[in-house]
Amino acid sequence: MAERYAVAVHEGKVDAVPGKDKNKRAALPNASKYNPRFVSPINSPSWEWRDNTQFLQVTTGCSHNGCRYCTFFKNVQYGKVPLDEVEFYLRYIALCDKVIPVKRVFLQASNAFHLSYDELMEIAELVHKRLPNLETIGSYGRMSDLRDKSVEQLRSLHDAGYSQLFFGVESADDNLLSLMNKGYDSAELYEAGAKLKESGIPWACTIMFGLGGHGYGFDHAVKTAEFFNAVQPNIVGGVSMTLAYDPYMKMVPPLFHAVERGEFVEAGEIERFEEMREFIRHLDAETLFLSRHSTMPVGFAALIPEKKEELIAAITKVIDEGDEEGMRKFRESVTEV
Questions:
Q1: DSSP H helical segments within 61-150, as ranges?
Q2: Of 62, 138, 156, 224, whose CB is crowded by the most CB atoms within 10 A?
Q3: Contact 176, 151 (CB under 8 A)
Q4: Contact 104, 53 (CB under 8 A)
């Protein structure tokens, strides 16, 4: 039977019991000199919450922090966590590895992949040094985080363990990229996506249904599908734009105030599924489509293109039989997106 450990942490010291000499302590730096292990709530795709995955803060806040539909990290200034602090908290993760082998580390906070190539490689060296069972390193990123990284550097990062990175694309429609203040246009999206595709590094991304508001049309769906067809992400996640009050940030997204003023009219619930269907009709990339987000009143999962027609039929059933009022109430009840 594998030996298990109960860990007690106090005043910069760690005891591992049983099976270890209690008088032998692993000395750690004084925790009081460091910031909290996480300065904001952990944010990651739902599939990252596994027993063999740990979260490691290497940045704080978001490097852009300007998207109009978002509240994440609005009250946290962007910054880089010093390497000695990263290494300090890695020692705690190494203790977790004694109980359940840590196979993956997902970097925090918003878009840790904004760090430079050299900084990301330093972090990879640190985590592999502390975690002998580590297989991969994940991170959120903005597509603009790829501006300073070459295809060759992305390949090196992949060799160092970076895999299944997650990028919040949301849309490839220039009108909406501008309206939502994403900080780049579709030309940069295609350039960044081409780098990811050529490098071979696995990555996931999102499309946000309802982003254009009521009556916007299908340009967003078609243009975003065309982008994904060109760059071939491994996973496409579907979410529904929800301007919910954020209990952690104690605020609503900036776009919420435009809705209050009548400057932006939100898309209806059935309308969002019609947009999803149009997106799937044009999506031909070999990918896994997932829309099991907290903002989706009905969830789907399907391999594209193998299950494309079955997925379209299922979405059509929701459009034909869905309860507009019930689905609206569902989304209005969402507090964590």
A1: 83-99, 117-130
A2: 224
A3: no
A4: yes
- HSE at residue 142, side-chain half, CA atoms within 13 A, is 23
Decide: 195 and 146 in contact? Cβ < 8 Å.
Answer: yes
Sheet of 136-141: strand order equals: 53-57, 104-108, 136-141, 165-170, 203-209, 235-240, 287-291, 300-304
Tell me which of 19-23, 118-122, 200-204, 310-314 is least confident: 19-23
195 phi/psi in degrees, rounded to 5: -60, -45
- Residues 18, 19, 24, 30: what is their CA dihedral angle, to the nearest 10 degrees? -50
Residue entry with tokens 């340009």: 219
* Mean pLDDT for all residues in the chain: 88
Of 316, 319, 203, which Cα lies nearest the Cα of 271? 319
Parallel, antiparallel, or unpaired: how do β-strands 300-304 and 287-291 relate? antiparallel
What is the average per-residue pLDDT within 65-72? 91
Chain-centroid distance of CA 225 in Å reads 19
The pair of structure tokens assigned to 303 is 């391999």
Q: Which residue, chain included where needed, has tokens 């059933």?
A: 317
Give the residue among 136, 90, 141, 135 at the shortest CA–CA distance from 117. 141
Q: How far is CA 115 from the centre of its chain?
A: 16
**Closest by alpha carbon to 89, among 52, 126, 48, 133?**
126
Backbone angles phi, psi at 52, to 5 degrees: -100, 15
- Determine the length of the chain: 337
Please name the residues in contact with 332: beta carbons below 8 A apart, sequence gap of 6 or more. Answer: none
pLDDT digits (tens, 9 = 90+) for 236-252: 999 999 998 888 878 89
Contact yes or no for 156/120 (Cβ under 8 A): no
Quick check: 16 pLDDT over 50? no
Strands 203-209 and 235-240: parallel
CA dihedral defined by 93, 95, 96, 98, rounded to 10 degrees?
140
Helix (H) or strand (E) holding 54: strand 53-57
Q: What pLDDT digit, counting tens, does each position of 121-171 carry? A: 999 999 999 999 999 999 999 999 999 999 999 999 999 999 999 999 999
Strand, coil or helix: 238: strand
